[in-house]
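Lecture notes, unit on protein representations.

Consider one protein chain, 182 amino acids long.
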Amino acid sequence: MPSGYVSHPSLDSRRKAALAFAAVPQLSLHSPIGDLSVSEQDGGIVAVDWGWGSAQSETSLLRRAREQLHAYFDGELTAFALPLAPAGTPYQQRVWQALCAIPYGATRSYLDIAHAAGGSPRSVGQANGNNPIPIIIPCHRVVATTHLGGYSGGDGLATKRWLLALEAREQPLLQPIPSAAA
């Protein structure tokens, strides 16, 4: 689990609007899976969103997050060292902590995570889909027992496959994902 994981009160499904309203610092970066925006609040990373944020703020924490994400995408970083503060229910917090325990390059099933965090594979899938800090909290490492499972970030399963290939060091598969607009 990344050091600095902090549990914070839940935000509802309007998380992005609430973050924008609160004017939290945000910094964007280009990545092989598309543009990403990292947000911080009260000294912790609270979100990684797909797309370029409209307002950019360079704080020391956001610069560190950007550097670590670049190193991850370059295959030079296998564990993030950032203070995380994802907003979610107590159950979601348990699931996200279990995700952080999955080693780089490994996968676990939704059932494995349900055994670790409680609940069912379906509830784990729902918590994964609500993960506000994808990649850093590695929801892409969770697969179904008989198939790849789902992925709601970026370009969906293409993004999940790309992240898993990166961690497996399957270099021929690691071409940037074409943007949906192309």
